[in-house]
Protein 1
Amino acid sequence: MTKIRLPKIMNETLDVFSNRYVNTSKTAITSIQLLKVAQMITSKGVRYKNLDTIDIPNYYAIVLLPSGGGKDRISNEYDNLIFKPFRDWFKEKAEVYYLEKKQKIREEYTDKNNKPIKQLIKEAEKSIRYPVLEVVDGTQEGLFEDAKTLKEAGFGAVTYKMSEFGMFLDSAQNTEKQFLGCLYDGYDGKIPSKSIKHGKREASIEDMPVNCLFLSDPTLFSSGNLKNMFNLLMQTGLGRRCVISFQKQQDKIIEYDKEVAFRKEQQFYKDCKKLSEQFMEIFNKIPINAIYEITEEALKDIHYLYKVRMEELENATEDVLRKKEIQSRQHKALKIACLYACLNHPTELVVNAEDMLQAIDTVEFISQNFETFLRYKPKSDDVYDRLWDFFLNNLGRGFKRTELIYKYFNNFGISRDKFKDRFDDYIDSIAEMAKDKGYMLKIDSINRNSGTEYRLIKLEEQELGEDTKMLEDLI
């Protein structure tokens, strides 16, 4: 496995989980682990100073692993085995906050004889919002209310975890899109309240750490509407704020020796217990609301050279989405460098050159498969290949939409209803495949725009007609 520069405890923990999840890419495990570290450290109000600017060392991650890759299991084992003491710390503080709120209500609602008014107390207590460690409801109102509670409580950070990011995007309506817009602002610590028709709008919440973990099967993003949605996320900013890791489907390594497997399992839990204690020891040393200042050496000698290297790479890249992803790496490295400073030397409130080098190494390591993901076309569903072969074998011949769905669906190894439901996704994929292979899927309107005809042509063999519509125009 590729070795990267990391803080000692990050490296040791990564080795333990990589040995357990041998079929999962180390980039994905690194990203999930880093998200958990950011959740822990930002919950203590840590910031970093870059010249005259104060920023939050939060972390946004998109982890794309095929189904069965253990995305949720890995995340849960980090929670339950490595970061459980931190999560217990949060629960204890949340309980103290909640009890204090209840006590204030009881003191407020008393009669002239200083006796509690039980009905008013009962109603008021219903309005108390309990601090939560992770947001799961996916609404703008919920995110704002949770952030407002944490702001008042004086500890914690908003962490949003989504296990089926692709499916969420595929069914996203206005409410879900507004929520994603809030996460976009949340990267910079700002959470806006929702505008309402009646009543006074609350002020936006400022300086609130927000961390995000989006988990998904990459197959969902390979074509159609979801691919377009992902492209839009990259162009508008939310996608660029995430460090994206990606793994293709691959054959699994199997351990057949049950004795070896059992010993590994035992060792895993022993290692996790030891690492958990070490993380909590570091966490306890980090001062509340600490500000770690980036040194001149880290900024000038390390980060500036990285910035120049990224600008050179951007200039050498033609793909628009890849350009945008490259542009964002510099800022991500600054945030991660602060997290690493906390792990490397929690009581020394600086971000030094070594912290910065480790952070840059991490960003580059996790991001290495982004370009591969942009070109990703899954092999698991051969409908794409059969449909491509069909058009290739009938090169130059036009087919109406209704013909393909009702007459030729048997050629593609799929039921008519399923082919009809996903027809646009399949056609979108064929158009992409054609472009990559030097062809074009020509799309013409017929019968006074009442229908559509599809024809695969070789680009150098035929000029496009004036009335030919590109696929992008039809979507």
Note: The radius of gyration is 26 Å.
Protein 2
Amino acid sequence: MSGSRILAGDIGGTKTLLCLGEVVRGDLRVVAKARYESASYADFSEVIGDFLSTREVSVIAACFGVAGAVVDGVCRTTNLPWVLDQRLLSRQLGGARVRLLNDLEAAAFGVLHLPEGDFTDLNPGAPPRSRAPRAVIAAGTGLGEALIVGHGAAATIVATEGGHCDFAPRDEREDRLLRWLRRKYPQHVSYERVLSGPGLVEVYRFLVEDSGGGENERLAAAMARGDGAAVVGEWGVSGRDPLCVRALDWFVRMYGAEAGNLVLKSLATGGLYVAGGIAPKILPVMRRGGFMDGFAAKGRFSALLQSVPVRVVLNPEVVLLGALHWAGERMCGVEE
């Protein structure tokens, strides 16, 4: 492979996805893609080095969605010991233009480029509001939130770190959960401590302790061997373990509650998009109604929330897609 290419990436606490794109007759196409386990690398420059080591290409522009706040072109990743700097990455890439985006900023831009088949509706029949702001929320390794203001080529994406705002209990059981979490995180209990892969495990472990009944030994062994959140999710969706079922149902309701908070704070009545790696894996539970119950339980504003379109993003590479299109359209002038 040779020639000029656009480099894009999705940099998360668990995985890093990289791809090369090229413009063919006005269309932006992916020509190479690879996945890396983030924790296996000391820094992001090593990942780029691996990816480009077997590819004779000249990178003209690069855009990366990063799980963390981007300030003055620098990001200290939230769930990795990495520091990314646009200037240093540009130097590594031979002077290419480089842009770092918060990962949800990239996801929101990616949402604008997804086909209809990459969504499923949780609130069918909600009336579209074509001029209203929209919001994106995504639980995965962490919890991300972003806003979309405007439509088409003029859309503005607003990055946030709303997932790190204070967790707000809604009832006595959630009060107990907050007190339990404060013993582990005395400085600050954020929504991310609850609404993320690690958060799902925390919810499950709280229920084990709170119920006083112990846990399934086979389940505990499976969690110890691999991804605890994935195990709780699988056993909860399938109904194999009552505590996993309860944890997942509760998780989904709290997810809906924070999504509703995001919509209220931004008045994003144009729609909510639920992205991230967790929602598609627990879709049967998301569809049972708990998410929408939590989302709309806002007292005097319940009717407003019930009128907001809510869609789950099924494409797991929406961050990568958003970063690629940002580089193509906003850095290289490719027209959609």
Note: Residues 242-266 form the longest helix (25 residues).
Protein 3
Amino acid sequence: MVTQETEGVIQFAYHLRPPRDRAQVRARADALEALAAPFRRAGLLGRDPARYDGLAYGNVSLREGSGYAITASQRSDQATLKAEDICWAALQRWPDGTLEAEGDRPPSSESLVHEAIYRACPGARAVVHGHHPALWQARAALALPCTASAARNGTEALAQAVTTLSRGLETGSLAMAGHRDGMLFWAPTPEALHQLLAQTLARLSDLHHDAP
């Protein structure tokens, strides 16, 4: 039986309120754009009519106060992130599990994965979830930690799997077997995350060069 992917579908309850400080939102957008740009150039963020039913893929976030700024649902394909493309989400959820968010659009469908990293890794301040077919297919050869195929994208099960694999690691990356082409990167700073991306892609290149 083939399990249908649910790319872009929000699978958690959330409450969205309008931004209270537009200047702060613009600053958040600038910071997220600086984080996203190298990942966009490397192909981990965007939109391709031939992939994932033409939906946008990938999302980025930065830890801020009692929560995190994150790209809004289906906005990671923008050439430059603007204020309306991002929102802020609280780490502390309502008793019923509802996510509290602030912005013009709903939070990313993968918000729970970002939340999982920030809870499990207190030193992590920047997280990127992107899609890279070649990295994903080489995950075993690169010895990357990997969530189980039963943990599907956007679910609490995937968030729990990410928590298990990342706990206590300030910097890291992993693949998601249950989310086609899905990769996750986190680090204490955007600069460290960009360095991790470059190192991981270099390892992939070396792997291909060494192949018979």
Note: DSSP finds five helices and eleven strands in the chain.
